[in-house]
Each structure stands twice: as structure tokens, then as C-alpha cells.
Design a protein that fits this description.
By secondary structure, the chain is an alpha+beta fold. The protein contains four helices and six strands; from the N terminus they run H-E-H-E-E-H-H-E-E-E.
């Protein structure tokens, strides 16, 4: 009986076919209670994420809207660069929002194969267009 393909096996197949297969870790962070977080915790969170960004551990981060795209939801997403899901989990656990119990999070490995996150950069072709 076969089950889902193993994550690392999938990554190897992607690389063999010429895809980038860059592994990053998507952390969706969700408020425990409605309303804005305390200002001091928000400030500590922003400082923490900025430090990880400076250190190269944050690929992307920012708030998420409600389902209609009209209001702040209080949730956010952080995409970590890490050597493993355990390392990414440690980054998430140290986030002041999570440490204070103001937000919870889910974390998943994400394999980047396609896209153009910066104009001219083409992940699917592993190229940069001038």
C-alpha cells in the first residue's frame, strides 16, 4: 500500500526536473482573542521579526486581511528560511506574540518552485531577466 510521497523525495524529484525546490516554512499566526494586541507586545514582535529579517531568517512577513479583503483580520503570515522545520518552529516559538499567548500558529514546509517574487526573478526558470 502506498501513501503520500515523502517530502524530501518530492524535493529531489523537483530538482531533478529543473525546478528550484527551495524549502521555506510558512507560519500562519492567528489571534487568540479579537482586537489588537497590546502595543508593547506588537512592538516586541516587530523588533523580533525585523531582527530575523536582518539575519536572513525571514523571507516574507506581514498581516492578512479578512476573507473579503476589506479589513484587518489580526492574523499574519511569516515565511521563514531555516534548515529544518524544527528550526523554523523555534523561530515561531520565540515570537513575542506566541510567547505571550496572544496568537497561536500553524507551520508547514513550503517548496518554492514557481513565481516571480521580485520583478524579473523567475523561480520556475531559476533566472533573472534584465
Amino acid at each position: 500500500m502506498s501513501g503520500p510521497m515523502k517530502w524530501d523525495e518530492y524535493g529531489a524529484k523537483c530538482r531533478e526536473s529543473g525546478q528550484l525546490a527551495l524549502e521555506v516554512f510558512a507560519c500562519v499566526t492567528t489571534p487568540v482573542n479579537p482586537g489588537p494586541p497590546p502595543a508593547d507586545v506588537m512592538a516586541a514582535h516587530k523588533t523580533y521579526i525585523a531582527g530575523l529579517e536582518t539575519g536572513g531568517q525571514v523571507f516574507l512577513a506581514g498581516p492578512l486581511s479578512n476573507a473579503e479583503g476589506t479589513h484587518m483580520s489580526g492574523a499574519g503570515m511569516i515565511v521563514f528560511r531555516a534548515g529544518s522545520i524544527a528550526e523554523a518552529r523555534a523561530f515561531a516559538e520565540r515570537d513575542p506574540m506566541h510567547k505571550a499567548g496572544i496568537r497561536t500558529y500553524t507551520l508547514q514546509a513550503w517548496r518554492l518552485n514557481e513565481g516571480a517574487p521580485i520583478p524579473g526573478v523567475r523561480l520556475s526558470r531559476r533566472s533573472f531577466d534584465l
